[in-house]
Specification:
Elements lengths: L32 E3 L13 E5 L3 H4 L25 H4 E10 L2 E8 L5 E8 L5 E3 L8 E2 H10 L10 E6 L3 E7 L4 E3 H7 L6 H20 L2 E2 L8 E4 L5 E3 L6 E2 L7 E5 L5 H6 L4 H18 L7 H6 L10 H10 L10 H5 L11
Antiparallel strand pairs: 1-6, 2-15, 3-4, 4-5, 5-9, 6-7, 8-9, 10-12, 11-14, 12-13
Length: about 350
């Protein structure tokens, strides 16, 4: 296998389509979503991502952006104010990764030579817009969520949005570019298909801290998997990437699924709804199982409902216990993030 340690691979390997529900009136419910045209892409993958929605398009679709925000009764700009052009600020280098949601290139900021990653997203792929509190113009979903999680103080385990631009046919995201990195899928393959527990512990701690940061900012990622985690091969530092399946976190149940099917919780399979925080814990359990076991715990819906776990020899009792806790069939019996950080398997390293 080719060693990709010298470059940053930000491409995804699983096909994924997104769909979202209307927002509530609490927390960040002042955000306003506007649906535009949909375009789907394809990825070669171990499993396919899917997205389903029980609401009708008339319930969720506006023909154009409102001039006045219904919640705050202030005028909303359709577009950000004019500023310097993308080409005047950044140089674009070679291709890093490509998928159905766009292409990612190396880049350099002209002002100071900072190395960045430049992601091009065709406008048909960006399905939703948000007008988030603190802004006066609408933003594509991924841009809006990344702006929320990138506000100071930033989290070192979440990829930072440095800048963004809108052009007639595409959006451009300027992202932090860590050195000597690859996605966690490729890293696991390079390590023989799985990680030892010491390495998995270092990585899982950072993932949980990244997810906690998103939760505290009112954001749910909804597609936590090895393809959406960058790891620096020389330090094992981890960055959570790709918020294209994300949403604003809410207490009410989600009635749509956005993400990768093998990571979907049993309550979604059985009832078509789930609580965002509890579904996130389930996905962390699937991730940890895959890191130490070398494969996913479930491939089919029947297996998700059955919930039977087959661990390979040599995995510690503490690790198996944490996986089983996260993958409880009853979502109310799953831990919260703080309990995961205090678990015996992580506790000696779980200090922010």
């Amino acid at each position: 296998m080719e060693d990709k340690g010298a470059q940053c691979n930000m491409g995804s390997k699983r096909k994924r389509m997104t769909s979202f529900q209307d927002l509530d009136s609490d927390d960040l419910r002042t955000a306003k979503k506007i649906k535009v045209t949909v375009a789907s892409g394809s990825y070669s993958s171990l499993g396919s991502s899917t997205s389903t929605d029980t609401s009708t398009s008339s319930e969720r679709t506006d023909s154009k952006c409102s001039e006045v925000c219904d919640k705050c009764k202030t005028k909303v700009r359709r577009n950000p104010p004019r500023r310097a052009s993308f080409t005047s600020l950044y140089n674009v280098g070679k291709l890093l990764g490509q998928g159905g949601c766009g292409s990612v290139y190396e880049g350099t900021r002209k002002e100071d030579g900072r190395e960045v990653a430049i992601k091009y997203i065709p406008k048909g792929v960006s399905e939703y817009y948000l007008t988030i509190p603190g802004t006066m113009y609408r933003l594509p979903l991924e841009v809006a969520l990344m702006q929320i999680v990138s506000r100071p103080p930033v989290c070192e385990h979440v990829l930072e949005l440095v800048d963004w631009f809108e052009q007639p046919k595409k959006f451009i995201l300027v992202l932090e570019r860590p050195t000597s990195c690859m996605d966690l899928y490729d890293y696991c393959e390079m390590m023989g298909g799985k990680l030892n527990e010491a390495m998995a512990r270092v990585i899982m701690l950072q993932v949980v801290l990244a997810v906690r940061h998103c939760r505290d900012r009112g954001v749910i990622h909804r597609d936590i998997k090895v393809e959406n985690l960058l790891v620096q091969t020389d330090t094992l530092n981890v960055k959570l990437i790709d918020f294209g399946c994300g949403d604003l976190l809410r207490e009410k149940l989600f009635r749509d699924f956005a993400g990768t099917t093998e990571f979907s919780p049993p309550e979604w399979v059985l009832d078509g709804k789930y609580q965002g925080r509890k579904a996130t814990i389930w996905s962390l359990g699937v991730l940890l199982f895959g890191l130490v076991n070398g494969d996913l715990p479930f491939r089919k819906e029947a297996e998700i409902i059955r919930g039977r776990l087959r661990f390979k020899r040599g995995i510690s009792k503490e690790c198996r216990d944490l996986v089983r806790w996260c993958l409880k069939q009853d979502p109310l019996k799953r831990p919260v993030l703080e309990q995961i950080l205090l678990h015996d398997w992580l506790s000696d390293r779980a200090r922010p």
